[in-house]
Design brief:
mainly beta, single chain
């Protein structure tokens, strides 16, 4: 037991705590489908940026996007299209600073009685900004319902990246 107590400080590693910025957006879309009734889709998008302090700046070292949807329809099933390769960081003028292209699908558990479909994707590209940055993370999606009077609707989600 004494040997374990002596080795414990050698086995300990300093772990720098991190933080995260998160935007969860849930919205319901209703489509009028002439001759076929109404169709709805409930969409949930959870966009998270993971941050650690690094050399006087924030290091945005990973981002996750979880998305899920559930549809109710008579004839025309609404669909969600999430194009992760358009997820980006923009500056205060709306200029693109970086577009995140490489996403990896992750294992995820979610309530199958609540959602018809769900997925989680991760991107590990490092980006560095001041604590007071006015930059934002941006992702967007579209919902589509074939045969609807207005078949396509969409939304852009913006996440402020400042930590001060």
């Amino acid at each position: 037991m004494i040997m374990v107590l002596l080795l414990l400080p050698l086995l300990s590693a300093k772990v720098e705590g991190g933080t995260k910025k998160q935007k969860v957006d849930t919205d319901k879309y209703l489509f009028a489908c002439p001759g076929n009734g109404w169709s709805t889709i409930t969409v949930n998008v959870d966009y998270t940026e993971y941050i650690v302090k690094h050399d006087g700046k924030n290091k945005y070292w990973k981002r996750d996007i979880f998305y899920a949807h559930k549809s109710a329809y008579a004839m025309n099933k609404p669909k969600l299209t999430m194009n992760l390769k358009t997820t980006k960081h923009i500056n205060s003028d709306g200029k693109t600073l970086h577009t995140f292209k490489n996403w990896t699908k992750q294992s995820v558990l979610a309530d199958p009685t609540k959602w018809d479909y769900f997925a989680l994707y991760k991107n590990g590209t490092n980006r560095y900004y001041k604590y007071t940055t006015k930059n934002k993370g941006v992702t967007s999606y579209n919902v589509y319902c074939k045969g609807a009077a207005v078949p396509t609707k969409g939304k852009t989600i913006k996440l402020k990246l400042n930590t001060k």
